[in-house]
Amino acid sequence: MTVPGDLHERLWENAPACRAELPDGSPVWLVTRYADVRALLADPRLSVDKANGDGSWRGFALPPALDANLLNTDPPHHTRIRRLVSQAFTPRRTESLRPVIQHTADTLLDRIAGDDEADLVRDYAGPLPVAIISDLLGFPGADRDDFRLWTDTMLLPPAGDRAAAAAAIGAIHSYLRRLIAAKRADPADDLLSALIAARDSGDRLGEDELTSLAFLLLLAGYENTVHAIGTGVLTMLRHPGLPLDVEELLRYESPATVLLRRFPTEDVDVSGVVVPRGQTVLLVVGAANRDPDAFAEPGEVRPGRVGGHLSFGHGIHYCVAAPLARIELEIAVGTVLRRFPALRLAVPPGELRWRPSFRARGLASLPVLLR
Which family does it belong to (predicted)? Predict the structure, then answer.
């Protein structure tokens, strides 16, 4: 939901919680103020479990084995799964990927180094996160193009083709089940093998929990990172000479415009507006990160800015892969700017194509001149 800045201003000033309708007809409440969004992200009365909704939310139609992930469960089930995940998603494992990320970035840029023009979404921002999350989880290299195609079709099916989206979801589900079986039979030094082996007092992840968790890590490790790299490069090109500040890039252009839908388990007061139990709440972090009450001159890029953005969320659902995303964004944006000091847009900014999505803020393409 890419909302114009002037509408953000009207919502901040007059509507702490506002009724709206999504393109699929789902009725929702939008919350846009930074203080409200941050508070609600940590409010235990807002559930992520669809069973607590009134049934009006539609969203993805996922099979149960992909739906039982961290983003759809509340404590204590969420607490248990996250504790097991944290054993495998360690800082050491994440930091060890830094040379892999750098090598992948350099390899992708080597392929376009002799060209005069490139599309940095197609040639760089897209394939880089697929390669990294695949390395992390232990995907065979030959399967990565298939995964990217399935994911793109699921997130943005051609002409809204629900059958194509369902087929892509089915393909991902089948692939993950086969891969988990292979890793269980022959473990390797990768995150998926570590998740299979993770235990806590004899407890371990079940089959559906493993499958849905792998699905979540793939989806989160791909979509938001593609958008963050693309908009990060664009922001730096439009503000030449500024030092690279990953946190400010994430605040200025939030890759996820809204965070996961939530359902109040009781009526909730949002700065004087009562949101009824069971109705769908969307926390618009793209607006919250530009709230002038939280950030001075929020429409400016200010490296070193004080204050925490909400692009990774807040509270118990804070993104478990945030450290990896920061490293990827730092290396991806910094490397392309260093390798191509004359890099500039090949079209006027107003002619850039953006992905049509209410959930995300991402470029469909980023045509650039390399020299």
Answer: Belongs to the cytochrome P450 family.
Rounded to whole angstroms, how far apart are CA atoms 283 and 208?
A: 28
Pull the structure tokens for residue 25.
């007809």
**Nearest partner of 217 among 154, 145, 140, 137, judged by Cα:** 137
Q: How many angstroms separate the CA atoms of 141 and 145, rounded?
A: 8
Residues 6+ apart with CB under 8 A from 344: 237, 368, 369
Measured over the CA atoms of residue 78, residue 80, residue 82 and residue 85, the dihedral's sign is negative
Q: How far is residue 352's CA from residue 366's CA, in Å, rounded to a whole number? A: 7
**Helices (DSSP H) in 42-189: which residue ranges?**
64-67, 77-88, 91-95, 98-112, 120, 127-137, 144-155, 162-185
> Cα 175 to chain center, whole Å?
22
Parallel/antiparallel/unpaired status of strands 199-200 and 273-275: unpaired
- The answer to whether the bond into 76 is cis (omega within 30° of 0) is yes
Query: Mean pLDDT, consecutive 10-residue segments, the chain of 371 residues?
Result: 54 81 90 96 96 86 81 90 77 85 97 97 94 85 83 80 87 91 90 80 79 86 92 97 96 92 97 96 94 94 92 92 92 98 96 88 96 91
67: which 2 tokens?
């739906």
Is residue 62 within 8 Å of 294, Cβ to Cβ?
Answer: no
Beta bridge partners of 281: 29, 262
H or E stretch covering 301: none
CATH number for 5-369 (one of 3.30.70.660, 3.50.50.60, 1.10.630.10, 1.10.490.10): it is 1.10.630.10
SS (H, E, C) 48-86: CCHHHCCCCCCCCCCCHHHHCCHHHCCCCHHHHHHHHHH
The structure tokens 């999505």 sit at: 357
